Amino acid sequence: MTTPTPSDGAGYNAAVERFRDDEYPMLRGSIYLDHAGTTPYAKSLMDKFARDMTANLFGNPHSASASSQLSTSRIEDIRLRVLRFFNADPLEFDVVFVANATAGIKLVVEAMRALPGGFDYAYHQSSHTSLVGVREEARNSVCLDDLQIEGWLASSSPFQGNGEDAPALFAYPAQSNMDGRRFPLTWASKVRRDNPAGKRIYTLLDAAAFVSSAPLDLSCTDTAPDFTVLSFYKIFGFPDLGALIVRHEAEDVFASRRYFGGGTVDMVVCVKEQWHASKNQLIHERLEDGTQPIHSIIALDTALDVHRQLFGSMSNVAAHTSFLSHRLYDGLKSLRHGNGELVCAIYTPVPNFQTRAPGTGPVVAFNIRNSLGAWVSLTEIEKLASLKHFHVRTGGVCNPGGIASALGLEPWEMKSNFSSGFRCGTENDIMAGKPTGVIRASLGAMSTISDVDSFVDFIREFYLDRYPALSLSEPTVQPQDLSRLHVHSISIYPIKSCAGYQVPEGVDWEVRPEGLAWDREWCLVHQGSGQALSQKRYPEMSLVRPILDFQRGELRVGYTGHVPAHLPNEVRVPLSQNPAVFQSSVTRRSRSSRVCGEEIVAQTYASAEINDFFSGVLKVPCVLARFPPGGQGKSMRHNKAHLQKHQMAPYPPKLLLPGSFPAPPSPPDSDTERTERRILLANESPILAISLASVEALNQEIERAGGKAVSPAVFRANIVLGSPPQPHDTQAAPYVEDTWSGLRIGCHEFTMLGSCRRCHMVCINQETAEKSEEPFVTLSKTRRFEGKVFFGTHMCYRGPIDGEGSLGAQFPTVRIGEGVVPGW
Ligand SMILES: *Cc1c(COP(=O)(O)O)cnc(C)c1O
């Protein structure tokens, strides 16, 4: 192992390339660009820590035993070592070990809140959420941008009219966790020096993002902040531990802290009288309530050793990551669509080499636009990036002020997005034509040039439109292509996200307003979170095979993967709704579950045999739940599918089939219709249909790019439409289903509800549960509209062609082989 050397980047890079495979085996095959979240840890760190743990006995540091003494002395040595790492003089500073940076912030807030007159609070607008939350404890609070802070430092206090009595806390990040911007460390000293007499202003520096890629130097006590918080896992990956570094001069803040716990008190009287003597010497003794995280602190020793051994110093890391971030910035900046428009809208300021300015950390925050200027959905990018093994952070990244100012989101817009359903982490991330989050690529000690280059190549490959203007492929439809369209197969997915049940040939299958009978009536629910399980997280669900056995009146469920020996090969669930099989809601508070983020109430099964089977084969604690039709309130769900813009594109004059629909159907996207249509546990709509012609066309694209064709099963459709081989080699036009507004199957009509948006779940082989890149990668290239990827079409039952009161109306069904006539 060699310590990398920085400067031009090449020496360091070569060294990291050399040891990365041994030291960071988990990085093999993946590009980790989320160092601002946490850093992967080195293998030698874990090995060394394991040796330390197995060679020494570390007791709880409160007694005179040798093991206890060993812990105490190691912890005190490490405390000192942490101070040295930040160049902080132990005579001026103390380190308090905490769970994470947030816990450090809360300790300061807890103390300030207890001050006799409370406290005022000023925070920088680029603050992490954990700093923003402090305002809820303050008497008054203000959120300031750079200019306002400079103005404050130059002249007047931002706390005008609030009285000068209460002390204030001024908090800001050393580096924004959103876009990497760094802020002057000198602000702390300026605030102290220039503050109006009488008002005591404490400074809190959030160094959590900064310290992972730069040396924090607290050697100048004058300019140092009073409180500095950070999380070690962002520097070393391990241990999960944080620190609050307190400047002795600011310790008086903690005098009013009221709580004490085991470890922070010298004597407590509670029988007959209430009295206690808090520890009053060292600040860490007064603040570290309860048993210290002994082993985590000891691991820190190893982390510091290994980090130094691998990277030399934080300055090396800073030089290397700064070199890489310039390359990343320049790479993304240089991407232009065929029509000359920029691909990336970058929020991170131009990195500069000037040493005097605080500059920018190794982070690039950006969004992607297509050549017409439309934003590409973040969830879409995330899906593709994760398939290609890129680890980036997307979304609001816990930095509300930074996001709002970068994206130009006004408070009313954020609130209106909120009330129209936007939440952190939902799929709807472009609202009212604006993105609601960013893509953040952040680099760290073991990032390499090739990480950066592959990321830029990835954006180029998938998001750069080469042609001068985006052209929507226009479907060319020949009437004869469609004349022999028929139902090729019918699949039911009784248990959400599990394998499908093939409806046999010759069977008339009931169609209900909610979808095909028995489709997605059950789901598996995580025992802890109440979340419905999905193949996305648990691909093995595709091996859970339900069979509808009407002879026996049972849903029989087997598993085609390995079934542990203590479990049966199959469990049977009665199709009838005998209430006795469900958890009684009298003895047990009926629990709500979540399906795609939506809260529902389903009936959970009481049988241990059933639940153990699913938990055992999937290796996740779960229960089976049923969501039968006809429920009310939270036992009822509604269609969410709707027409997509690309489907409404102006196509050439529409072809009318002789004898097709009597009147053009009304547009299927009216809101009232949408809310009336019920569904069971399907993600979006009652029925999902795909056409074999489209699968064929997609497979041709995949094979052209050297990939392997996929089975239509990956799309988990209910109805697969096919056509017999066409004369003269013509194929039914692919994707023409996107243009239909209705469909006739046999003697029934269906309304199309819009294209089906896809995620990387289509990459799971439904026979083997293995994941691959396709077809999502090719779909992303060929089937992306408005930044979203579509394949297949949602639909629902409309009614019989021969009108109400007919036989067909009483019991609508579909059957394999029935003729299909589309309508526009
Ligand atoms: C990560 C981070 C935090 C929060 O750290 P925790 O370990 O989650 O407490 C706060 N501020 C910034 C700037 C961060 O990057």
What does this protein look like?
Residues 663-823 form the MOSC domain. The protein is α+β, with helices and mostly antiparallel strands and 824 residues long. It has four domains: 82-259, 3-Layer(aba) Sandwich (Aspartate Aminotransferase, domain 2); 329-463, Aspartate Aminotransferase, domain 1 (Alpha-Beta Complex); 479-485 and 639-823, no CATH class; 522-626, no CATH class. The chain has 21 helices and 39 strands. Strands 18, 19, 32, 33, 34, 35, 36, 37 and 39 form a nine-stranded mixed beta sheet that branches. A seven-stranded mixed beta sheet has the order 2-8-7-6-5-3-4, sandwiched between helices. Strands 11-12-17-14 form a four-stranded antiparallel beta sheet, covered by helices on one side. Pyridoxal-5'-phosphate (PLP) is lined by residues 36, 100-102, 128, 130, 173, 177, 206, 208-209, 231, 242.
The profile of the biggest β sheet is: 9 strands, mixed
Please give the radius of gyration in angstroms. 31 Å
Low-pLDDT windows of residues: 469-481, 650-675
Query: Structural class given helices, strands, pairing?
Result: alpha+beta
**Strand content bin:** 15-25%
Number of helices: 21
Q: How much helix is in the residues?
A: 25-40%
State the end-to-end CA separation. 67 Å
Function: Sulfurates the molybdenum cofactor. Sulfation of molybdenum is essential for xanthine dehydrogenase (XDH) and aldehyde oxidase (ADO) enzymes in which molybdenum cofactor is liganded by 1 oxygen and 1 sulfur atom in active form.
Protein name: Molybdenum cofactor sulfurase
Active site: 398
Cofactor: pyridoxal 5'-phosphate
